[in-house]
Structure formats: C-alpha cells, structure tokens
Specification:
The chain is elongated. Helix 4 crosses helix 5. The protein is mainly α and about 140 residues long. About 45% of the residues lie in helices and about 5% in strands. The chain has helices at about 10-15, 45-75, 90, 105-110, 120-130; strands at about 95-100, 140. The protein contains 5 helices and 2 strands; from the N terminus they run H-H-H-E-H-H-E.
C-alpha cells in the first residue's frame, strides 16, 4: 500500500486578508489595524408595524380578560340585591355602647351580660376591645 502526497500551494494555507481602515479615514478612539465590523441592519418599517400590531392585540386581549373577570365578580357582589335584608342574628347581632364617665368593664358587663356568666362576658368584652383602658365618649362593641 502506498500513500500519495500532494503539495498544496502556500497561498491556500494562509489566512484570508482582513480589511482594515487606513490611518487617515479611521475615526478617533479606534485603534489602528482593527477590522471593520458591519453594523446590524435597522428593522424595516413592515417589521416595526407588525410588532406594533401584535402589542396592541396583546393589550386588547388583556383588557378584555380583565373586563370579563370584573364582570363575573360583579355578579357575586350584586347578587340578591332588592330582596329583604338578612336578619340581625345572621349578620352577627352585635351592638355598641358609648362609655360614660365612671364606667368600667365590670359595670358594663353586669348591665349587658344577659344570661351569660359575668366572667365569660367580661372576657369576651375585653377580647373585643383589645385594651383594658376605657375613655369617656369611646364607642365599644358589645358581645
């Protein structure tokens, strides 16, 4: 078996020539001998218009989706309008009391507790108020 070797011309092994700008036409700040680089092409008008149309369609679709969500939520908000109001016991039946000078939680609990044991009512009253201090003219919620 024999191998045949061919000789390639030396010009084909050399690197391709790089185009450089001459010293006189080179813009300031660019080092000499750097290759010229082509700038990317600016988007054409039809491509820009297509992007504009797509963005507007997307904004319209989002606005339509938000309108549908708001409309479906409004149905539950305005449901049963025009009928009789719910009874006081269903709403919670809480009442308020305006604190007079000299009132205490103990005196208020004795007056408004009804059938509830005094200690239990007093605990509920303090829990609703959030503070053990009362001021004259303050409106508190009664359990």
């Amino acid at each position: 078996m024999t191998a045949v070797m061919t000789h390639l011309p030396t010009a084909s092994l050399a690197r391709p020539a790089r185009h450089t700008t001459p010293q006189a036409s080179r813009p300031s700040g660019r080092p000499a001998g750097r290759p010229m680089v082509a700038r990317p092409a600016v988007a054409s008008a039809p491509a820009t218009h297509t992007i504009y149309v797509r963005r507007r369609l997307l904004v319209g679709a989002v606005a339509l989706l938000l309108a549908l969500v708001a409309w479906s939520g409004a149905d539950s908000v305005f449901a049963n309008r025009g009928s009789e109001p719910a009874s006081a016991s269903a709403v919670g039946g809480t009442s308020t009391y305006v604190v007079a000078s000299g009132d205490s939680f103990w005196s208020i609990a004795e007056e408004y507790r009804g059938e509830t044991p005094l200690d239990d009512y007093l605990d509920q009253l303090l829990a609703l108020h959030g503070s053990p201090v009362l001021f004259a003219g303050e409106v508190i919620t009664l359990p």
